[in-house]
Amino acid sequence: MSKRPYVIDEMISAKQIAARIESLAREIEFEFGSTDKLIVVGLLRGSFVFIADIVRELGLPVEVDFLEASSYGNDMESSREVRILKDIRGEIEGRDVLVVEDIVDTGFTLQHVLRLLNGRNPKKLRTIALLDKPSRREAEVKANWIGFEIPDEFVVGYGIDYAQRNRNLPFIGKVRFVEEDEA
Ligand code: 5GP
Ligand code: MG
Ligand code: MG
């Protein structure tokens, strides 16, 4: 649980997210147009709302799978060391795969996951991230599609948590710490 009181300022509305997902889905359909079945891999837990919205917007046959990676570190900072806590269930060799991430921050998580999955020889491996913080990048990695570029702010909502809270907000908001009586 978080100890310091904070408020959440809306940064990206539910409407903006929905509109962006519609146009991203058209681009993804174009890229994977000839697929027999696209394997959509959500990175737990932050992408669970995003992947739900993306797959329902895609006019392609899809299979949904999940992978959970974790970087050592505290609630607000990631680290270079990435562990796989839960691997995908399905085989991806020779298959079309789309990895769905919530936020690319330093990029270490996505880099690690892409190396792992690429080692299994998929036919085509692409990545979409809802949010990108390019100013924070340390690992050389880039998602093929980005929902929104954001500044170096700590955000929550739309699946993304602060100490396991606020995942159920329908919008993306910025965490702002306040004095006890303002919260
Ligand atoms: P990276 O390995 O790119 O540094 O870390 C990516 C992960 O760090 C994201 O998938 C997310 O779990 C976490 N992260 C990065 N920025 C934020 C943020 O602003 N808010 C929250 N809640 N998590 C973040
Ligand atoms: Mg994540
Ligand atoms: Mg988290």
TrEMBL record:
Pfam short name (any one): Pribosyltran
Main location: cytoplasm
GO biological process, alphabetically ordered: GMP salvage; guanine salvage; hypoxanthine metabolic process; IMP salvage; purine ribonucleoside salvage
InterPro entries documented for this protein: HGPRT, Hxn_phspho_trans, PRTase-like, PRTase_dom
Sequence ranges assigned to domain Phosphoribosyltransferase in this UniProt record: 14-162
SUPFAM superfamilies on file: PRTase-like
Cofactor requirement: Mg(2+)
Name of the top EC class for this enzyme: transferase
GO molecular function: guanine phosphoribosyltransferase activity; hypoxanthine phosphoribosyltransferase activity; magnesium ion binding; nucleotide binding
Entries under CDD domains matching the protein: PRTases_typeI
Compartment(s) of residence: Cytoplasm
Keywords: Cytoplasm, Glycosyltransferase, Magnesium, Metal-binding, Nucleotide-binding, Purine salvage, Transferase
Keyword Amino-acid biosynthesis: no
Pathway info: Purine metabolism; IMP biosynthesis via salvage pathway; IMP from hypoxanthine: step 1/1
Reaction catalysed by this enzyme: IMP + diphosphate = hypoxanthine + 5-phospho-alpha-D-ribose 1-diphosphate; GMP + diphosphate = guanine + 5-phospho-alpha-D-ribose 1-diphosphate
Gene Ontology annotations for the cellular component aspect, listed alphabetically: cytosol
The protein's Enzyme Commission number: 2.4.2.8
Stated family: Belongs to the purine/pyrimidine phosphoribosyltransferase family.
PANTHER family: HYPOXANTHINE PHOSPHORIBOSYLTRANSFERASE, HYPOXANTHINE-GUANINE PHOSPHORIBOSYLTRANSFERASE
Name of the protein: Hypoxanthine phosphoribosyltransferase
Origin species: Thalassovita autumnalis
